[in-house]
Design brief:
Elements: H1 2-22, H2 44-73, H3 77-91
Helix pairs in contact: 1-2
Keywords: Cell membrane, Membrane, Protein transport, Translocation, Transmembrane, Transmembrane helix, Transport
Pfam families: SecG
Protein name: Protein-export membrane protein SecG
């Protein structure tokens, strides 16, 4: 189910990109011809493309929220992959907010190194 929603999300993103590129803004953009001939932009096709862009944007937001909700609550393959990572994260020690040592055990007392006391 999540894979299907992700595929729909990718299709909606590509379609939104195409809708944005096809639009004829006031500055010319990808439109052929001079910018002075259509000083205020194309009105009729602009309305349809603008509404289509808003609809696709809404679809992308809804699909994104649906994928997030389903992936978080499902016990499918996404949860299995995350459980091994989560177990490793749970086992790692967390640093102290006061800047203390990560190790709870004290280091072994080391013997002082022998110094050469003879003068040369």
């Amino acid at each position: 189910m999540v894979t299907f929603l992700i595929i729909l999300l990718i299709i909606a993103c590509v379609a939104l990109g195409l809708f944005v590129l096809v639009q004829n803004p006031k500055g010319g953009g990808l439109a052929t011809g001079g910018g002075t001939s259509n000083m205020f932009g194309v009105q009729r096709t602009g309305d349809v493309l603008e509404k289509g862009s808003w609809v696709l944007l809404t679809v992308i937001v809804v699909l994104t929220l649906a994928v997030t909700t389903i992936a978080k609550t499902s016990g499918g393959t996404a949860a299995v992959g995350n459980s091994a990572i989560q177990e490793r994260l749970d086992k790692t020690p967390s640093p102290s907010p006061l800047g203390g040592n990560l190790n709870s055990t004290k280091p072994a007392a080391s013997t002082p190194a022998k110094t050469d006391s003879t003068k040369k």
